Amino acid sequence: MKPLELDDVAVHLGDATIWRHATFALEPATITAVLGPNGAGKSTLLKVILGLIEPSEGSLQVLGAPPARGNPRVGYMAQSRHADSLSSITARDYVGLGFDGPRFGWGRSRAKRDVVARALELTGTTHYADQPLSTLSGGQRQRVALAHAAVFRPDLLLLDEPLAGLDLAAQAEIVELINLIRDTTGAAIVVVAHDLNPLASVVDCVLWIARRQVRCGSVDEVVNATVLSELYGHPIEIFTTARGRRVIVGLEEEFAHPHPHGHDHDHGHDHEHEHDDLDHAHDGVAPEAP
Q: Is residue 22 included in any domain, yes or no?
């Protein structure tokens, strides 16, 4: 069973087509980087997977079934703003919220303590688990957020810009941790990012969204001049440095503006800025207990 399968999926919000003709499948124990300019529909993809938005066309399977809100087999890590709003609570309590979200009244159980302890151990956060989030560095807070998202060792883990706002050293630590979670749990991990290079050493697939189009494949299959030029409708060049970093020339304007060429400017910005609502909606809906 594949963790995620899309067959000719399209999403329309109002009069706007966000993206269409999305056909791809992800394998277990893989890491997929989701790239593209702001407003292209990366967060919309996460909402579709989480069952918060229904596809307008095509079919979608998440772990062999239609997507459902609050599925404990699907972990989700929001952008850091949600943790910021809870900065007075301890890291342990924040990870515990990942347990409580789909289970409501089970919060005092021994099972919760054990599950939270395992998540803290996996992410290397045990030694500062009882400190308030406000006292932690950005990298430490992202580790705690990963523990929150992975508390049930999900089969599919969705991470929305986990590297944002971190320096290079902290980014490298989080990438190493993402890889460890993949190796330890066997989860398929989907990482929304602005830059492939920090993730390049661990990524198996790239999913690029631009101008209502979606391309998915290996790094070499997607991140090449031919595919990116087709996606953006103008020439793109790619250079590889001596250290293996890919430098993409021709996307400066695309990433400087929130709406790529051909996007519906009146609608395209709304669907990319609802991370807190998405986080609450995923945590606050109770599925059947496994």
A: yes
CA distances for 66 relative to 4, 49, 114, angstroms: 10, 9, 30
Q: What is the pLDDT of residues 178-203, one digit of tens each?
A: 999 999 999 999 999 999 999 999 99
- The secondary structure of 66-108 as a DSSP string is ---TT-TTEEEE--THHHHTTTTSBHHHHHHHHHHTTTGGGTT
Q: Are 76 and 46 in contact (CB under 8 A)?
A: yes
Which one, of 135, 96, 101, lies nearest residue 279 by Cα?
Answer: 101
Residue for token digits 């399977």? 61
The values of phi and psi at residue 22, to 5°, are -85, 115
Tell me if 213 is assigned to some domain.
Answer: yes
**What CATH number is given to the structural domain containing 221?**
3.40.50.300
In a domain, 75, yes or no: no
Which among 47, 56, 59 is positioned nearest to 7, based on CA atoms? 59
Domain count, the chain: 1
Residue 141 has pLDDT above 80, yes or no: yes
Contact 75, 152 (CB under 8 A): yes
Kind of pairing, strands 16-26 and 188-192?
A: unpaired
The C-alpha atoms of residue 3 and residue 25 are separated, in whole angstroms, by: 8
Percent of the chain at pLDDT above 70? 81
pTM value is 0.84
Percent of the chain with pLDDT over 90: 69
Higher pLDDT, 123 or 99: 123
Residue 67 domain-assigned (yes or no): no
Tokens of 222: 């997607």
CA nearest 178: which of 202, 153, 198? 202
* Domain carrying residue 213: 4-58+80-283
